[in-house]
């Protein structure tokens, strides 16, 4: 789970940032909710990395990230998602999500 993402970030911005940090092709799921009324990001995302090593590398590189490419004082924090781990668990959890 990623927290403290800029509210004016888009899904494309997030994916570009993740890929630019060396994680292109190393994840298979992204859930990036927005407020449908304001179109603002809610400031968090769930990401499923393909291997435990990818997840550990992601945590080391992205926890504390703040070079957003747009004005923001937010500092990203990365944590394990509990209780959902893995692609199947995330798809099942968010398949019918209202966000």
Task: Compose a concise summary of this entry.
This protein has 99 residues and is α+β, with helices and mostly antiparallel strands.
Walk me through what this model shows:
The chain is an alpha+beta fold and 99 residues long. Helices cover 32% and strands 15% of the residues. It has helices at residues 11-23, 52-62, 87-94, and strands at 2-3, 27-31, 44-49, 77-78. A four-stranded antiparallel β-sheet has the order 2-3-1-4. The model has no long low-confidence stretch (mean pLDDT 88).
Beta-strand percent range:
15-25%
Helical segment count = 3
Give the beta-strand count: 4
**Uncertain runs:** none
Helix content: 25-40%
Radius of gyration: 13 Å
Strand order of the largest sheet: 2-3-1-4
| Broad shape | globular
User: Given the helix and strand composition, which structural class is it?
Assistant: alpha+beta
Mean pLDDT comes to 88
Distance between the termini: 16 Å
**Biggest β-sheet: count, sense, barrel?**
4 strands, antiparallel
What are the secondary-structure elements, in order, as H or E? EHEEHEH
How would you summarize the topology of this molecule?
Layout: E1 2-3, H1 11-23, E2 27-31, E3 44-49, H2 52-62, E4 77-78, H3 87-94
Antiparallel strand pairs: 1-3, 1-4, 2-3
